[in-house]
Amino acid sequence: MKVLKFGGSSVANSENIKKVLAIVEKTSKTSKIAVVVSAFGKTTNALIEGAHLAATKNEAYKTVLEKLEAHHFNVIKDLISLENQPEILNHAKELFHQLATIYEGCYLLEELTPKTLATISSFGELLSSYIIAKAANISFETGYKDSREIIIASNNYLNATVNFAETNKNITAYFSGNQKKVTLLPGFVAKTSEGKTTTLGRGGSDYTAAIIAAAVNADELQIWTDVSGMFTANPSVVKQAFPIPHISYHEAMELSHFGAKVIYPPTIQPVLKKEISIRIKNTFKPEEEGTLIAKETSNKKPVKGISHIENITLITLEGSGMVGIPGFSKRLFEAISFHNINIILITQASSELSICIGIADEDAQKAKAVIDETFEFEIEKQKVNPVKLEQDLCIIALVGDNMKNHQGLSGQMFSSLGKNNVNIRAIAQGSTEKNISAVINKNDAKKALNTLHEQFFEEKIKQINLFVTGVGNVGERFLAQLEQQKKHLKKHLKLNVRVIGLSNSRKMIFNEKGIDLKNWKALLENGESTSLERFFNKTKQCNLRNSVFVDNTANQAVSEVYENYLRQSIGVVTCNKIACASLLENYKTLKAISRKYNAPFLFETNVGAGLPIIDTLKNLINSGDRVHKIQAVLSGSLNFVFNNFNKNTTFHDVVAQAQKEGYTEPDPKIDLSGVDVARKILILARESGYDLELSDISKNAFLPEESLKTKNNDDFYASLTKNEAHFQQIFKEANDKNCRLKYVAEFIDGKANVGLQHIPAEHPFYNLEGSDNIVLFFTDRYPENPLIIKGAGAGADVTASGIFADIIRTTK
Ligand SMILES: NC(=O)C1=CN([C@@H]2O[C@H](COP(=O)(O)OP(=O)(O)OC[C@H]3O[C@@H](n4cnc5c(N)ncnc54)[C@H](OP(=O)(O)O)[C@@H]3O)[C@@H](O)[C@H]2O)C=CC1
Ligand SMILES: N[C@@H](CC=O)C(=O)O
């Protein structure tokens, strides 16, 4: 025999009840079954609300009653054919008449005793079970049994204790004599030995089903609800959560204790004792497997689920007077339990200096008063400090029977939380190691749950959340590459890279599910107005794991907010060179903060665009090499300009072409003045371990003073035209010596300089084509023949791919 229990949502309306009947009919073909039903969804709450209204002389109880009546009558009319309706409607009317009379009594007496409330609450199940049994009978033979006739319980009317000796006798007697394949029973209700209606408290219908299943030694107890089983985490918080196919009783209870609402542990005790398995199924997706809860499980994964409880307060009792003195904990726990305060979590420092307990927020003030009173003497004598309360917290817990057999799980748990800047306030791990709990700030709950879910259940796909500022030349190509590579990243690198926030200098948009990159331009145009502060605050608010801020601007103010992101453990990837070429102290601070908060700070594109120059240099340094000398051509735009400028072209046009090709900075004077190259050699020197400032780099300028003094691009270009003869003279001097012009950067033994040089034909820089860059590293390991990196050193596409590479590096 099987026992099936259908909850309130499964029987909320006639459509749902039809689904229930189909499931019952199908199951009854292979087994004798008892079907326990809850009240129609939300009915019990409405019944209780009506009772309180009536007892407080509020006539609104009549409206509650009318609505309930209308809903039940509608269900009858939907489910039962016209000729069969009168009998059923009459019975329902009779029950509603009784209910109205009880409400009226409460109204007149202005009184509501637990006994009356239990009677009122029982109407929900009495009505639903009767109606469903009648509807079932139309298609297949169904018996009906009022549970009050077989389940005997105490007169603690709202949470009655079952008399199992009598109840089990009644149930076995009834079912052994009952030949019907299907029997319908109301959940939640029972009768006292004096014959009064009583109720079984929270989860009462589950309890009814479990009592019957245990008494008849059922093959299985099925709990039918509106979710497809117990999930690896709360699916409304963790989108990737999935139902756990097989789980032990112990694990199910741990998960339920920590927030999974599918079962209420006390109610399943009867089946647990008899080792009857429980299957959680979804009424609305009956084809799905659901979760099987049994004594043993075939699923040997160490972590079965992650759960959480919100609204937790931590109470800490500490003081030097507690050390080595027995009885402190006893007094603390006695005081708390005497006042009916439930303790959810306990930790105690091995120094015995403090005991920390986690309780529900609503009990916090009461608990503080109780503890302060209990330890009044010790507090006065300063042996114990007044109790400390910390609110707005929550508990997250890893659950799994098999965790004890695996090393390093708590290490993984806490390091992945730490990497994502989730501060842990307290930790509790039972000696059975079936549960590892951490108390964290409740604002971090979503991030923490997703981080842990990714760590323990999604080894395959890691989510990277990007917050991108700057969608110009480089930024636009970056977004296009991201969109194009999305599938590849998922399939081959197991990375789901999403852009959550996007901005230019005017507008910003955010979408926690990921911005549609096919349509970002229109979305951004219609976005809200932005500022660096607003973008940062929004990013912080999202509080997502694996977050990275991407700077695709050339803006100083943007470069000054990196620290804020890094301090939130949000990584920074930037092609903007200003931060790394700023004061040495700032550069060092950013690196230190990046290390401290475990947030990557990557800027490969600062030198040579997409070329792996900084990464290679880091590898040299990390492996113990030492750089003595760097010689390089580091400006893609200047290389392009001097490769194309001759007596048949104008300097103005060649520079304009370089800008059009996307090689120059937004302000091309930054390139032509040598500032861009100076920044790059400075960054290479710093990455090589040398302490240099930008002002230490000598610059041999070739621009006339007038061009250097211009304030905008138009004036700058006008000055280039005006000084064409100056540029032609520079070209001629080199050409006359059969040399080419190259803007070279050099770093030799701690000193750096940049400037235009005449490069003869035999020099390795002579044939450097187009917008290419070249870098020669002379090091301990490469003393004579330098390590050379050469290739396209400017352009939106190559730069975007360099940013891309940095983002992938953040995941390592
Ligand atoms: N081109 C190349 O080969 C390489 C470029 N880089 C670097 O790439 C960076 C970007 O260059 P590029 O794409 O050409 O520049 P663009 O001028 O084309 O784009 C700059 C973007 O930044 C936005 N922006 C500017 N100021 C702010 C601000 N205060 N807040 C938010 N957004 C802002 C702009 O918005 P709006 O349009 O609203 O002004 C625009 O979207 C530069 O730092 C450059 O050095 C690095 C390596 C190679
Ligand atoms: N403007 C730069 C491009 C990137 O750094 C250059 O010309 O090299």
TrEMBL record:
It holds the Pfam family Homoserine_dh. The keyword Transport does not apply. It catalyses: L-aspartate + ATP = 4-phospho-L-aspartate + ADP; L-homoserine + NADP(+) = L-aspartate 4-semialdehyde + NADPH + H(+). Keywords: Amino-acid biosynthesis, ATP-binding, Kinase, Lysine biosynthesis, Metal-binding, Methionine biosynthesis, Multifunctional enzyme, NAD, NADP, Nucleotide-binding, Oxidoreductase, Sodium, Threonine biosynthesis, Transferase. Pathway: Amino-acid biosynthesis; L-methionine biosynthesis via de novo pathway; L-homoserine from L-aspartate: step 3/3; Amino-acid biosynthesis; L-threonine biosynthesis; L-threonine from L-aspartate: step 1/5; Amino-acid biosynthesis; L-lysine biosynthesis via DAP pathway; (S)-tetrahydrodipicolinate from L-aspartate: step 1/4; Amino-acid biosynthesis; L-threonine biosynthesis; L-threonine from L-aspartate: step 3/5. Its cofactor is a metal cation. It comes from the Bacteria. This is Bifunctional aspartate kinase/homoserine dehydrogenase I. It comes from Polaribacter batillariae.
